[in-house]
């Protein structure tokens, strides 16, 4: 990682959560790679398999939304 990229990352980490979410979405859209969709599909299948095998325990959506609300409130 270059020094410039490290500085950008450090600056971004200090942004409010809403701004970081916006930036993350813009970066993902900028990739617009056909392979990206395949990678997300593979990730979804991997996560599904982890849940089915018991390796990972799912978290109820209500808990996830509460945590997100707490993080965004900071």
Describe this structure in words.
With 74 residues, the protein is mainly α. It has helices at 3-13, 17-31, 34-53, 61-73.
What labels describe this entry?
single chain; 74 residues; mainly alpha; 4 helices; 0% strand
Task: Give a topology summary.
Blueprint: H1 3-13, H2 17-31, H3 34-53, H4 61-73
Which quaternary structure do these chains form?
single chain
Report the order of strands and helices: HHHH
Radius of gyration computed on alpha carbons: 16 Å
The number of helices is: 4
Percent of residues in helices comes to over 70%
Describe the sheet with the most strands: none
Number of DSSP strands? 0
Poorly predicted tracts of residues: none
**Structural class from helices and strands?**
mainly alpha
State the shape. extended
- The proportion of strand residues reads under 5%
Report the average pLDDT across residues. 91
Termini, distance in Å? 29 Å
Quick structural overview:
The protein is mostly helical. It contains 4 helices and no strands.
């Amino acid at each position: 990682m270059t020094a410039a990229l490290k500085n950008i990352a450090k600056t971004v980490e200090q942004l409010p959560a809403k701004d970081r979410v916006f930036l993350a979405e813009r970066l993902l859209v900028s990739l617009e790679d056909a392979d990206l969709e395949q990678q997300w599909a593979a990730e979804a299948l991997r996560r599904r398999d982890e849940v089915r095998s018991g390796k990972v325990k799912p978290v109820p959506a209500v808990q996830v939304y509460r945590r997100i609300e707490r993080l965004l409130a900071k």
